[in-house]
Amino acid sequence: MKLRNVLIVVSDIEESINFYRDLFGLQVVLNNDGNVIMTEGLVLQDKNIWKDFLEKDVVPQNNMTELYFEEKNIEDFVEKLNNSRYEIQYVNELMEHSWGQKMVRFYDLDGNLIEVGTPIN
């Protein structure tokens, strides 16, 4: 068995595509009517499709999952976040763990938790 993708629910597909393209460099692989596959295996699904399929409400900022990215130049990335057109809601500002890894946590446009950390070698 092989994990192929991770799906997150978003309220505005186009704005989420822009967010992940502008900040993380992800590109659209397939755009199929409310379902978008991006590079690195990230799938965006329209909130209404998800709600109809599950017949349950979507709960933003539920802090049950996290997308994890690595970035060597994390200070530059945080500057990119701060200078972007997006209103970034931080969970943790840039910090350094006792083992030397730097990281920052924030929410995407729909309350999906994201962590960006420096690689651990």
TrEMBL record:
Domain VOC, residue spans: 2-119
Protein name: Glyoxalase
Record-linked InterPro entries: Glyas_Bleomycin-R_OHBP_Dase, Glyoxalase-like_dom, VOC_core
Classification of source organism: Bacteria, Bacillati, Bacillota, Clostridia, Eubacteriales
Gene3D superfamilies cross-referenced by the UniProt entry: 2,3-Dihydroxybiphenyl 1,2-Dioxygenase, domain 1 (3.10.180.10)
